[in-house]
User: What shape does this take?
Amino acid sequence: MGMTMTQKILAAHAGLPSVTAGQLIRAKVDLVLGNDITAPVAIKEFEKAGIERVFDREKIALVMDHFTPNKDIKAAEQCKVVREFAKKHAIKHFFDVGKVGVEHALLPELGLVKPGDLVIGADSHTCTYGALAAFSTGVGSTDMAAGMATGACWLKVPTAIRFVLTGKLKPWVSGKDVILHIIGKIGVDGALYQSMEFTGEGLKSLTMEDRLCMANMAIEAGAKNGVFEYDEQTAQYAADHGCKDWTVYKADADAEYTATYEIDLSAIPPTVSLPHLPDNAKPVSEVGEITIDQAVIGSCTNGRIEDLRAAAKLFEGRQVHEGVRCIVIPATQNIMLQAMEEGLVKIFIDAGCAVSTPTCGPCLGGHMGILAKGERAVATTNRNFVGRMGHTGSEVYLASPAVAAASAIAGKLVSPETVLGGNA
Amino acid sequence: MNATGTAIKYGDNIDTDVIIPARYLTTTDPKELASHCMEDIDKDFAARVKPGDIMVGGSNFGCGSSREHAPIAIKESGISCVIAATFARIFYRNAINIGLPIVECAEASAKIQAGDRVSVDFDTGVITNHTRNETYQGEPFPPFIQGIIATGGLMNAIKTGTL
Assistant: This one.
């Protein structure tokens, strides 16, 4: 029986000629990731077990991105624990304030993940790197500790759902709309324990940024990983970001899938997910009159340069609606620089947006944009759970950067076309 | 190994943000985490929970973030076992790795009501509801995972060379 893309990568990293769904394996990892929230727990476990050495100081990434620049004394203490660990073990890829970016935007940008790699990260959105035709999955802190100690991870080989993409995205529709649409279709546990494998001729119309955004949210359908079939764009992206010597894994023609969905990209409208689950997705045109207090454009899901360009196109010559706070967070220092060079930062500030240094901050209700009781935010982030961005009586509406920008301008949830007056 | 306790019941898609809100993730202290466990959907949980109580959820329990603080908070609060129809996969891993017993059983998840007296046999996966005189067959862990639990969690398994 044939193997899926994911199964091929897992078999190669387990040193096995083949694997089948349900099999428990021990696989070698190419990179172990942690952040300022999850790494302190992992370090505690690592030290408690009396382990003296990390398996490879060049294959661990420690990214201080969640509550940084330190939001309070406790957050500062947590970063200190990680900083000291990084120093002690000479961890090569330690990123602190000034160099740091939101982890899942930063690592691909720096070429730290290449096609065919196996990456585990103590952050649920580690699945982002599936955009690069790699296997990557979120794990917990103890898994991270074990990964740092041994360079390996136990995994159960997953079954897969195949998404065959056809057609081409309409203007002002992005990967975010596609993934919200898909999660709305299959549910927040629709891919539980499984891989989501994206293939089909529609891939051509999805940029790497679209793919990174979609793979990022595979976890919101319960998936173990989301992976895109390798193509010319993948190769180009890997080469442009300094990757070398990667391996391409393609699904066998007779690979088995638990389900196959055909998704016509041209039929997907600008989409939002209403509170309080990501699968509560609707076309923005059908949500009715929903006023907002805040808009957040950023995060590991949508803080990349293409996201900022889309938002800037709407903000150019327009103003954030009175009474709305709009916070724009370029996901890495490079993206911030690029946004400055392209004049995007000026557009945002002229429009009345606050522009911040990279941080995960508001997405998880950490800092930089917490909501009060009864407030509503449209956000380009990935979760709209109860209390996710602040008070349990606040609400989060998930959307693309274009929809978030348009809504910030209109003061209510609208599609980009509404703001542009039909001149898309 | 067994657990016996009183059921505390929740619904579907209990996410890690409600198990332990991100605003408390500036600590790794289990006791402090436990004092805020479930507070966003069940304010009195920390005051009400008794050692040995059994938490019962619906489908996709523990969805969302990878924060191990979630199973740590539940374990430290005194919960002896979590029963759910299904678990989100990172929560599932984390529970095994830190030694919080969990059992998947759709029937138990549907039939157990808050306040029921429940026992769980982890070796067989059999769940007994003493209040309703019912038994349900849960999914016992495969031997590989039972091995991790028997050695006292993932780090111990690595340390002792059993993995």
In short: Chain A is about 30% helix and 20% strand. Chain A touches chain B through 53 residues (CB under 8 Å).
